[in-house]
Write a structure and sequence with these properties.
By secondary structure, the protein is α/β, with parallel strands linked by helices. The protein has seven helices and four strands; from the N terminus they run E-H-E-H-E-H-E-H-H-H-H.
Length: about 140
């Protein structure tokens, strides 16, 4: 499965370097940066060139309703012969899970799993530290 990261500015290429710092060199993941001066059509063409030879594609975008998301969804409808899913709200937890879980044949199951991972990856230290269930080290022992 091809993973495509599409985001505003250099977020896509930046988060890809973060993934590689943690997971090592990755294959079949492409970053598409939507930078100042690019048109919607340019972003769309870049994504299209990345997915052209793939049958199954997962596109991870930064903002729901933003240009990267909108043009990616347009490609889903234009390429109904392919199995393409688009998610918004990209974070590093989601990307890590997508990288390690994309061997599955069930794209819908993967999408559901990634939405849950992204949600569960959001926490605040105030609430965590108020929990009286151990030391600070125990709270964060499952971290990367």
């Amino acid at each position: 499965m091809q993973l495509v990261i599409v985001a505003h500015g250099k977020f896509a290429s930046g988060i890809l370097t973060s993934l590689e710092l943690i997971a090592g060199k990755v294959e079949k993941i492409q970053a598409v940066d939507f930078t100042d001066g690019m048109s919607d059509q340019e972003v769309k063409e870049r994504i299209k060139s990345v997915i052209s030879s793939e049958e199954k594609v997962l596109v991870l975008t930064d903002l729901l309703g933003g240009t990267p998301f909108k043009v990616s969804v347009e490609l889903v409808t234009e390429h109904s012969e392919k199995s393409i899913a688009v998610l918004s709200g990209l974070n590093l937890s989601m990307l890590l899970e997508a990288n390690f879980s994309r061997l599955t044949d069930d794209l819908e199951l993967l999408v559901s799993k990634l939405v849950n991972v992204a949600r569960e990856g959001v926490a605040d230290s105030i609430t965590l530290l108020k929990q009286d269930n151990g030391t600070e080290e125990e709270l964060f022992e499952d971290g990367i």
